[in-house]
User: Which sequence fits this backbone?
């Protein structure tokens, strides 16, 4: 298989009001009026997590966020509000097109950009040789983890909703919360792999090279 390169980061500084300014939304749609909103759509610098910050107890409210990922595919997930703190999406959004509230919020809320992000997924070849070399090149200050999954939203027999996919940290602990450039491998081919930027202002460029069958 031809080597596949995926990149995550760098992220511009997070902003808690970048998507929605302070509001106490009723049941239904939130008003997207942050600095990143153009024509009713929030356009983020790169695909990254979204942060919901509550001034009080919003734990009885479920927010549904809809947008697109790095490839422009529509993604969505449900997120339970926080109680006097923050709640962060599982998925990374390049755009946010709508946010709805299941009930009237009990406290004020802002929506902004999170401090974490995941790279575009790498699809490994299930029919090729299992051995896959990995090289993660770290640039600047980063903390990152390589993850993989056997879930497949495109499966003809057992599709898994994107927001319900289970991602597992790489078994080589050197690739978990890593802060420098590392080489490693897979002894078996997962269906997808990705790199999660846990924190930092830098970027990680990762190459996956699987042996041909």
Assistant:
């Amino acid at each position: 298989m031809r080597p596949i390169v995926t990149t995550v980061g760098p992220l511009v500084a997070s902003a808690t009001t970048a998507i929605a300014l302070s509001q106490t939304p009723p049941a239904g749609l939130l008003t997207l009026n942050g600095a990143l909103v153009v024509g009713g759509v929030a356009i983020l610098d790169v695909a990254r997590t979204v942060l919901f910050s509550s001034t009080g107890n919003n734990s009885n409210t479920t927010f549904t966020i809809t947008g697109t990922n790095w490839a422009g595919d529509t993604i969505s997930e449900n997120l339970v509000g926080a109680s006097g703190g923050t709640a962060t999406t599982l998925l990374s959004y390049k755009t946010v097109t709508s946010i709805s509230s299941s009930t009237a919020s009990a406290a004020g809320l802002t929506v902004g950009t999170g401090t974490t992000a995941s790279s575009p997924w790498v699809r490994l070849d299930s029919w090729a040789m299992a051995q896959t070399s990995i090289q993660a090149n770290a640039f600047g200050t980063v903390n990152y983890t390589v993850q993989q999954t056997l879930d497949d939203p495109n499966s003809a027999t057992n599709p898994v909703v994107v927001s319900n996919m289970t991602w597992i940290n790489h078994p080589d602990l050197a690739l978990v919360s890593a802060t420098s450039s590392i080489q490693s491998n897979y002894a078996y081919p997962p269906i997808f792999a990705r790199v999660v930027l846990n924190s930092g202002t830098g970027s990680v460029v990762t190459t996956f090279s699987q042996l041909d069958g």
Observations:
- The first strand starts at residue 4 and ends at 8.
- The chain has two domains: 4-8+118-210, 20-115.
- The mean pLDDT is 95.
- The chain has no helices and 19 strands.
